[in-house]
Amino acid sequence: MEVRFFNVSETNQLKQGIHEVWAKNHIFVREEKLLNYMFLENPAKDLLVNDQHYSFLGAWKDHSLIGLLGVMPFTLNVCGKKEVGCTLANWGVLPEQRNSGAGLALMQHVQKLNPSIILALGINETVAKLYKLMKWKVDEQTPRWIGLVQKEKTIDLMLNGNPYPLRYWNEIKQIKTNSNYTVEKVDSLDEEMWNTFYWDGFAKDSIGFARDFSFLQWRYFEHPFFHYHVFTCKDGTGKYKGLAIVRVENILNGEKIGRIVEFISSDQDSAISLANAMIEMDRDILFFDFFCFSSISSWGLEAVGFKQVLKSETDQIVLPLRFQPLDLAVTDLRASMFVTPKFAKEYNLVKNDLWYITKGDADQDRPN
C-alpha cells in the first residue's frame, strides 16, 4: 500500500477520489477553488508539505485509490511558543476496503509528521467510537454559546413553537461602558500592530492554532466564498484590544443567524465593546452562536446575555446546528483530539481556559 500526499498535478484524481470515497458531488468536487484554498493555499501548509503537493493524503492499493484524509496544518500557539498542529477532514476508505488497514495507515502517516496536536472537529458517532479506540480524547459536545436576538421568532421557526428548551434564555442586550475604547467594522488589519497585540498578549494566555495576521488574512479576509464581518476594538492610542468575527448565514427562506467564529478580548471593556457592536450589526438576525473549547472568550458574550448550552438528557434540543434543511436531531458538535505525550507532560492541559479552539479551525465553517 502506498500512502502519500496528492501532487498538484493530480487535482482531478483528488476530486474524483473525494466523489467516490467520501461523498458524491461534494463541495470540494464542485468547487476546485475551495479545495485549493483549504489544502493548497493555506499559509501554514509548508509546515508539513511542500508547494508541489496538496495537504491531502491518499492511500493506493494496486495503483487504485482506496482512502483519503485531508490535513490542514497550522502554527500552534502554546502560551506564546510556536509549535506545529493540524486539523483533519474527509477521512474515509472505500467500503469494500475497510479491512485493508488503509484508514489506520493514513492516520499513522499524519502522526509520523509529529504535530503536537491533531484536531478532528465535527465527527459523527461512528467515527467518535474509532477515535476512542485509538485512545484519543473525545468530546461529545463542543461548548456552544447562544445569544437570542429575536426569541419568539426563533422559537416559532426553530422549535416548532415549543418555548421549553429556551425557557431560561432572554434576548441579548447592550451594556453601557465608560471606556475610551472604540469598535469599528474593518476590511483589513494592520499586520505589525495585530501581531504585536496577539503574540505579546492573548497568545501568552492561550493554547490553540495561532490567530496571527497570516491566519486571519487567509481564513477570513481571503475566503473565496464566504463574507465575514470583522470588528476590531482599539484603545485611545489606537492599539488593538480585541477582535470579533461573524458570518451571517441565510436560512429558512430569508431568515438569518449569526455564526461567531472568533471572539478575542484583552479585558472587560474590550469584551463588552465587541459584544455590543455585534448585537447591533443586524437586528433581523434570529440568534448568534459561538463554538469554543473554553470560556476564555465568553465573558463579554455572557455579560450581554449569551448562555452556554448545558448538555442534558431532559433538554435534548436547545437550538439545531443544521438549517438547510432544518434538522432538529443534531444539536451537538463532536470533537476529538490527539495530543503527544511530550506536549501533555509539559503543559497544564487541565486548565481548560487555555484552549482557544473554535469552529473556524476545521472545515466546519465552509459552504456545503
Query: Separation of termini?
Result: 32 Å
Overall mean pLDDT stands at 91
Share of residues in helices: 25-40%
Global morphology: globular
Structural class: alpha+beta
Low-confidence stretches: none
User: Nearest-angstrom radius of gyration?
Assistant: 21 Å
Describe the fold and architecture.
This protein is of the alpha+beta class and 368 residues long. It is built from eleven helices and 17 strands. The chain has helices at 11-22, 27-30, 32-39, 102-112, 125-133, 151-158, 191-200, 213-221, 268-279, 299-303, 341-346; strands at residues 2-7, 53-61, 64-78, 81-93, 117-123, 137-139, 144-148, 182-186, 207-209, 229-234, 240-251, 255-265, 285-291, 307-308, 322-323, 326-327, 334-339. Strands 1, 2, 3, 4, 5, 6, 9 and 17 form an eight-stranded mixed sheet that branches. The chain has a seven-stranded mixed sheet with strand order 8-10-11-12-13-7-14, sandwiched between helices. It starts with a strand and ends in a 22-residue tail after the last helix. The model has no long low-confidence stretch (mean pLDDT 91).
